[in-house]
Structures are given as C-alpha cells and as structure tokens.
Design a protein that fits this description.
Blueprint: E1 10-16, H1 24-36, E2 41-45, H2 69-81, E3 85-89, H3 97-100, H4 123-138, E4 145-147, H5 160-166, H6 173-191, E5 196-200, H7 209-213, E6 221-226, H8 234-246, E7 251-259, H9 271-287, E8 293-301, H10 315-331, H11 336-346, H12 365-377, H13 380-383, H14 389-394, H15 397-402, H16 407-438, H17 441-451, H18 453-473
Helix pairs in contact: 1-2, 4-6, 8-9, 9-10, 10-11, 12-16, 16-17, 16-18
C-alpha cells in the first residue's frame, strides 16, 4: 500500500557545479530529463564555475574554464522552456572555500586554518558577498529566489575579533551568526525587494524560539531543513520545522539527497539509501501541522563535501537514484509502478537492480562502465592483492630484502598482477573516453587519480619489484614474464 505523495510545493534538483561540471550539451540533456521526471526547478550552486568578473575574476576555476555568461543564460532559457525555474545558490558565510583560498582573501577568514568561514566583523567581507550576489543576480534576470547558503559555519567565534566581541555581556555565537545573516538578508531585500531568500537551517537548530523571533530574520528568509540520512528521525524533524514556524518563519523547505551524502569518496550511489531518505521525508510532510507552509523540497546531489574534498558520485551514475527518489515522492513509496516509471524514463529494461546497487542496469554506457570499474576496484583480489597467500608467503619484504625469491612463484605472482593491471587499464581507457564526452578532461583525470591510481600503483610496483628480484636470482631473459 502506498503512502501519501509529496504535498503541494516545488521539487527542485540541486546542481552542485564545484566538481565535475557537466559540459553544456550534457547539461541541456539533463534539464530535458529532469523535466520528464517532473522537476519544477533547479537549485544551482555554481561556486567557481560562475563567470565572475572584475575584482572577482580570480574566483573562476582554473582546472577547467568557468561557464561563459552566454552559457549561464542559455542554461536558464533551456530550463525556462521546460517550465523550470532556476534558483542560484551563493554561499555567504560558511563553505566559502572557493573564495577564501585565494591569497588576497586570506584576511577575511574567521580563523587562518578554516578556509571556509568568513569573518563576520569585517565590512569588506559583507561587501565581497554582496558583489558576488550582485553579479549572480544580474546574470539571472528571471529568478525570483536566491539561496544564501549559511550552513556549517565552522569555527565561528574562534577568531580573535570574535573572541573580543563575545567577551561583551549578552554576546553569543548564536547572535554572531544571526547578526551576519540578517545583515546580508536585509541588504538583499534592499537591492532586490522581490527576491525570496532561502537559507540552510542547521546553524539555527539549537536556537530557542525566542532567539529566532528576536533575530530579525522573521519575514526575511525561508529556512531549508536538510537531512540526507535513510533513518531520518521523523519526530525530531517535525519538531524543528514546527519550532521555526512558531518563531514566525512558517514558509519552510525540506532538503533530501539523491547522491553525494553517503561517504566523501563514494563512487556509485546506493539507490535504496536515498529512496529510504525520501520515504522518511514523506512521513515528515504528512505529520506537519497546517500552520507550516511547506514551499517544497530540494533534492540535493553533492559533487563534493566541500570545495577542497574529493569528488563524490558523478551525475551520470546517479540518475537512476534521482529518478527513483522523484518517483517515490510522487507515489508515496518506490512501488512497482514507480519502478516502471523510472525504467521507462531512463530507457532501461528494469529497476530491479536500480534499487540495490545499479549493477548492470544503467541509463548510459558511461554509467555501466563506471559501475563495472568500481566493482573491479573494490574486488578483494585486486585491492588487497598483497594479502594473498603467494605474495605474503613467497614475496614478503623479508624475502625481497634478502633476494630469497622463488622464481617460479614470482612468475605466478607477476602473471596475476599483470593480468589485473591490463584488465583495469583497458576498462579505465574506456571510462576516460566516455567521461570526457560529458565532463571536462580535468574531471576525468581527477576521478582516475582518486579512484584508480591507488589500486593500480601497488600492482605496478609489485610487477617492477618482481622483475628486479627475479633478475638477480635467474637471468631475466630466461623467465617467461
């Protein structure tokens, strides 16, 4: 039996462009697919892929070119033609790594080691944020909503200026956070009175209702509560949303996840995990009081945990997860009918495997190759090759140091390691060939270095060590290696 579907409100898909930014042609294809899946809008987090200019030009990516102004505008036109709105997301407090990593911006950090958090006491910081927003808003003429981030403001209150401020009576870290966010939100409303302002909620979760009421944020912002876990606590989440509503912030958002929230280095998403997350969010929505005006849900797809972390699951391999999550919201659960819809939309034969680990059933050749390569890389025989009986028994460090190596068994070890290497290299070449069609060359290179090189490098070293050792035991040209 199906539960109630997602109530009225928008379904936004989050495009996190701070890693593996899709080529423009692929972006258009994604927007077309999102439209077919019933998506109402895009929550676009550009970071360094936005074409900042003037003094902010240094914020643009260097690994690959940022999108051009024309590409940003055409992406919005493409979305608009499909009935989707575009909501830009610009971080204004925490997670500003892509800004504060640059030497000219170092003085604007809250603390030197924390690259992501802006010093809330510097007027230059507010001016910087407002200039970033000005450029983004100017290039989104049709947008009526803006997400200002403000999540995970790590080390807030630890800077020297903050410590001095906090030493005054009545000054708290909570107030420090609220002061900055309120200042930014008020400046946005002055510049663009029509703009709806959305922000992440996590820094406000521990605040009392009275603190929120007195913050100045009531009527200025719409909090977006995020929780990406498959066992989301329904009662706690409902209580939080009701607290915000009771404080006067009745216009609220939810945020779930279809990828990028399992582990910082996950390669292939677990569809079941993300479907379970959405099932829990459906329970939350059904339990809310009528006073809560749920504006919608943002289905996030993180590409990195932050600007300086490794790549999470790439978009192409997460599309079945996204489709499954959207159909879950529409049907109340991932029913047989919902699975059929996913298979139909993605052009795949069945969703039986989609609900587990995507093995063998994917929407693109690259997705199939990615899953196959990931399975090989995580094979115990390959990943833990140095733990096998022959290697540990006849080619240990003790044997290598004393050149006490059996040429016959060394040949067997070399043969097996070489076979694994060749198989991996062939698969990697196929993955790279397909990957650069959808993403920049730099993405393919980073992905391979992060996921493949740590596995192939030991195998390569083993083959070289065996050649060196065996050559000293028996003339190398007499061995069939």
């Amino acid at each position: 039996m199906e539960g109630p579907p997602w109530p009225k409100g928008k379904k936004l898909v989050h495009l996190d462009l701070k890693g593996a930014p899709p080529r423009v042609e692929y972006l258009y294809r994604l927007i077309e697919l999102f439209s077919q899946l019933g998506v109402d809008g895009l929550l676009v987090e550009y970071e360094d892929m936005f074409p900042y200019d003037g003094e902010l030009k240094l914020l643009q990516a260097t690994a690959q070119p940022a999108y051009s102004r024309e590409e940003v505008l055409s992406m919005q036109e493409c979305a608009k033609s499909k009935g989707m709105e575009v909501v830009p997301l610009v971080q204004t407090f925490g997670h500003m790594e892509f800004v504060l990593k640059h030497r000219p911006m170092w003085s604007l950090r809250e603390t030197a080691p924390c690259v992501g958090t802006l010093n809330p006491h510097r007027e230059e910081g507010v001016r910087l944020v407002m200039e970033m927003l000005r450029q983004v808003v100017a290039l989104h003429p049709g947008s009526n909503a803006l997400h200002i981030g403000a999540d995970e403001v790590f080390m807030l209150g630890e800077g020297e200026e903050s410590k001095l401020w906090l030493a005054s009576p009545g000054c708290t870290v909570e107030q420090l956070f609220l002061n900055h966010v309120t200042k930014v939100a008020q400046a946005i409303k002055e510049a663009w009175p029509h703009m709806t302002i959305i922000m992440w909620d996590d820094m406000m979760r521990g605040m009392s209702q009275d603190t929120l009421k007195a913050s100045g944020l009531v009527g200025l912002v719409q909090p977006m509560l995020w929780d990406y876990t498959p066992n989301l606590d329904v009662d706690t989440t409902v209580s939080l949303l009701e607290k915000y509503c009771g404080a006067g912030m009745s216009d609220l958002w939810a945020a779930s996840s279809f990828k990028g929230s399992t582990c910082v280095y996950t390669c292939v998403p677990s569809t079941q995990r993300h479907v379970d997350n959405h099932v829990q969010w459906l329970k939350v929505a059904a339990a809310l009081s009528a006073a809560v005006n749920l504006q919608g849900i943002a289905i996030t797809g993180w590409q990195r945990y932050d600007h300086l972390s490794v790549l999470c699951e790439l978009m192409h391999v997460a599309l079945p997860s996204l489709a499954a999550c959207l159909q879950t919201l529409s049907h109340g659960r991932f029913s047989a009918e919902a699975q059929g819809k996913v298979a139909e939309r993605l052009g795949i034969s069945s969703c039986t495997v989609c609900i587990s680990r995507l093995i063998g059933v994917c929407s693109t050749r690259l997705a199939e190759l990615t899953v196959e390569l990931n399975s090989m890389l995580n094979s115990e025989d390959i990943r833990f090759f140095e733990n096998n009986m022959f290697f540990r028994g006849w080619f240990s460090p003790y044997h290598q140091q004393r050149k006490m190596v059996s040429p016959l068994i060394a040949m067997q070890i070399h043969s097996q390691a070489s076979t694994y290497l060749t198989t991996l290299q062939e698969k990697v070449a196929a993955v790279r060939e397909e990957m650069v069609r959808l993403y920049p060359e730099s993405t393919a290179q980073e992905w391979i270095e992060e996921h493949v090189s740590p596995v192939t490098a030991p195998l390569q070293r083993i083959t070289e060590d065996i050649r060196t050792c065996a050559n000293e035991m028996v003339p190398w040209n007499m061995l069939p290696l």
